Amino acid sequence: MSVSAATAGRMRASGTQNLSFIVFASSLGTMIEWYDFYLYGVLVAFFAGHFFPANANATLTFLASLGIFWTGFVVRPFGAVFFGHLGDLIGRKFTFMLTLVLMGLATFTVGILPVYDTIGVLAPILLVACRVVQGLALGGEYGGAATYIAEHAPDGKRGLYTSWIQTTATMGIVAALLVIMAFRIGLGDHAFQAYAWRYPFLLSAVLVILSGYFRFKLQESPLFAKLKHQGKSSHNPALESFGSGKNWGLILIALFGFTAPEGVVWYTGQFYALIYMLAVLKLPYVEVYMILVFALLLGAPFFVVFGWLSDRIGRKGIMVTGFALAFITFIPVFQMMTAYKDNPVVLTMLVWYMVILVTMVYGPIAAFLVEFFPARIRYSSMSLPYHVGNGVFGGGVPFIGSSLAAALPGVPFVGLFYPMAISALGVIVGLAGVRKPTHTVKIWDEVGGQPLVPDQP
Fold first, then answer.
1. CATH architecture under which domain 18-435 falls
2. pTM of the predicted model as reported, rounded to 2 decimal places
3. Structural domain boundaries of the chain?
4. Residue 434: helix, strand or coil by DSSP?
5. What is the DSSP string of 239-265?
6. What tens digit of pLDDT does each residue of 105-148 get?
């Protein structure tokens, strides 16, 4: 089936939006969704105090708050399946507009929730419900944004362009830390503890409207539009993705070889480090926040560096090297953090090193996943392993690590055993499961053409 004249006109019109604007609009929305999602993680101690009984065991309420944090991750795969199905059936743009709105509404609602002293046990139940909606929305967001950018990018530059979407999670944390710190310092700890912790969540409404304005200007992915008009799109993406033994083999390789180890490296280097400095080293929150902000900002450009490099030497080698370094160096790094807890410069460099590992394993992964699955079921197929790996395995690092440390206090750094084991698994499965390089795959060959969107401003 040939592309109609009207369709061709629409696709040519999309050329007025160069890749710079497409990457900006897509990444801004994703960054705001990460900001929304990670506000809870940064403020987890506050939720322990407000949403559980005041006379409860402090360790148990802290672990319960971490468990609620993890809930948002556990449901992400369900969002990936549902919204991935919509994205492959209806379109990329519609789906990630929908997820942005849902995330914004859930985050705003957290900001107006009554606390335990007001409504009792219903407070943590409503908090869990909000985290579930956030997790479902984020489950659909990442796959849509990554696929959307990748399907605009020319072959040979896919790692470079999709690496910008990889920076958004880190920038979301930076935004959350800076906004929270501004309210805490500006209003004082007493006011922030009492009521102002809500303000960063309420601010989300403004940010979502801003991002929605830019995203609304985007048009459908030209590759998906061409696929649909050629009659090659899937009529039942979920069934086609998850009803195929061959495709399940690819999903499992992607999960255990790449996304699960990537997830644990990510959350160890950022959130577990945050919790360790606050809860174990007992450092002041301003110092910890600034250490993280500087380390994340210094490390963020390397997402693009490793994305660009993966276009030239391949994705797998870079990511597997990052997993191996994580396995070898996590314990020495945390030992040094303990030894140099009074030296913020050294702590910043140690966290920065872990961020560099994150950029190695996370920078190339969007391009890898896009190339690993066919276009007709790409959104569905890549979203599931990403969110199981990053969400369930990676998001579990703070809870599992803290639980192991609480259960086995006599074992030094036992909380790191979990991410180290998953990183080692990534080295084995990654090397054995992927034999052919993916960076040479030409995804536009599936529809017989090249991107119609210019890759220069």
1. Up-down Bundle (1.20)
2. 0.80
3. 18-435
4. coil
5. HHHHS-HHHHHHHHHHIIIIIHHHHHH
6. 888 999 999 999 999 999 999 999 998 998 888 777 777 777 77
